[in-house]
Amino acid sequence: MSNSLDAYLVLSGLLFAIGSFGFLARRNAISMLMSIELMLNGVNLSIVAFGAFIPGLGVQGSVIALMVMAVAAAEATVGLAIVIAIYRNKKTPLVDEYDAMKR
Amino acid sequence: MVKLIAQVLIALIVLGMVTGIAAIMLLFLGQDWEDALFWILASVMIIAALLVVGMRDIIRCGLAMIVCFGSLAGIYVLMGAPLIGAAQVIVYIGAISVLILFAIMLTQTKDAPSRLVFQTQAGPAAVASVVVAILIALAVTATDWGALPARAIAGANAVATELFTDWVLPFEVVSVLLLAAVIGGVFLAKREPGGPS
Question: Do A22 and B112 touch (CB under 8 A)?
Fold first, then answer.
């Protein structure tokens, strides 16, 4: 079981689906960012699984996963800074109170 | 106090169930250590991810996210990518989780309504994500991946050689991206002198 590509890919799909549910359903902006991190981890898991099991890929899967981690760190930095900047103006972390572009 | 003991008991029962299932697999079903470890880590990861999206208290969500990332690092090591597991621990548990916990500390006030956790679209979102999970599982199991060899261990030497020969340009670009993200984060979160407090 642990030596089959299917198990890891199904696991990463589950993680991605859980993250997408959190992104769609939570009201708190930071919860949405946490759900995005879950989704990125699911994608990363599938990339590493492909790199470990497909022989032509070799260690490139690990290298791509490292790149994804760096980009995810940059995304978390900027995303949390945006959330804090909006919180300073609107005094709430709930995303359905952010209606500045609707009015 | 009773509530605390009940929570600890529930956690112990869940842990015992997970390890019990793994022990049964190991002893009676003739499976090996790697399968048992995979099941333990995978179930801990999925339970922690469900807690991240499902719990009401957002600080506990952040702590469950750390558990999820930690077990994912274990899965990376199990899969034969120990360097990725180490990077997962350093980057996600060490940096991103701390960043998110600090942001939670800065943005959660006492009077913010914590009871309204989910949007009104939570039901359709749950249906959509279940459909996504089922579709991914069906597509994965229906695909023929060909004859897969035993998995290769991506050691640190091989990864470093690949990273600093073929991938050196993306590596440098990522360093510039991180610098831009740091400067952008400081600029966005900076308090302006005459602006709102």
Answer: no
Query: Residue for token digits 């050691």?
Result: B155
Distance (Å, whole) CA B8 – CA B31: 30
The structural domain count of chain A equals 1
Which residue of A lies nearest to B58 if distances are taken between CA atoms?
Answer: A31
Residue in chain A nearest B188 by alpha carbon: A81
- Contact yes or no for A78 and B49 at CB 8 A: no
| CATH dotted code for B1-107 | 1.20.120.1200
pLDDT value at residue B32: 78
Q: Which residue has the tokens 């299932």?
A: B21
Tokens 């090591």 map to which residue?
A: B77
Give percent of chain B above pLDDT 70. Answer: 90
Q: Does A103 reside within a domain?
A: no
* B81 vs A20, A52, A82: nearest CB: A52
| Residue A32 placed within a domain | yes
pLDDT by 10-residue block (mean), chain B, 197 residues: 84 81 73 82 92 87 93 92 92 92 82 66 90 93 77 81 91 94 89 64
